[in-house]
Amino acid sequence: MVGEEGAFVLGWDEVLTEEELSTTLKVLCMSEEEFKEYKEQDGWEDDSEEEENSTLSNEALSRLKTPFKKLLYDSVLLTLESYRSDLKAEQDLLNNKEAYEKLSRREQQALHVRYGQKRILHQLLELVH
């Protein structure tokens, strides 16, 4: 459902893998009966036009159905737990010029990437809470 990578791509303003996320949320929140019907029909036929015209912008994420928001919220918390440090620790390291300069160039780049990822995830938590 989520492609070969098994992950969703989130940007600052919208979900970049919106079709995969939308389908995954719908399927994971289905009853067993709804899922059987979905499999028999090879997906949804009527929703394709509606989904093509909608984007999962930040505004749209905040208006998702409650079960979808809960699933996203819990998933983001699990993702954040997979990091060794939290957002504040990354921010503190970025703000500590002496400690930051002791990092190798590669470690500095990794820090910036992790910090950006965590900021996007925290933004998503706010949107779906």
TrEMBL record:
GO terms for molecular function: methyltransferase activity. It is found in: Nucleus. Coiled coil: none annotated. Residues 4-121 form the Rubisco LSMT substrate-binding domain. The keyword Nucleus applies. The keyword DNA-binding does not apply. Gene3D superfamilies: Rubisco LSMT, substrate-binding domain. InterPro entries: Rubisco_LSMT_subst-bd (IPR015353), Rubisco_LSMT_subst-bd_sf (IPR036464). Keywords: Methyltransferase, Nucleus, S-adenosyl-L-methionine, Transferase. Residues 43-53 have a biased composition (Acidic residues). GO terms for biological process: methylation. Residues 39-58 are annotated as: Disordered. It comes from the Eukaryota. GO terms for cellular component: nucleus. This is N-lysine methyltransferase SETD6. It comes from Eudyptes sclateri (Erect-crested penguin). The gene is SETD6.
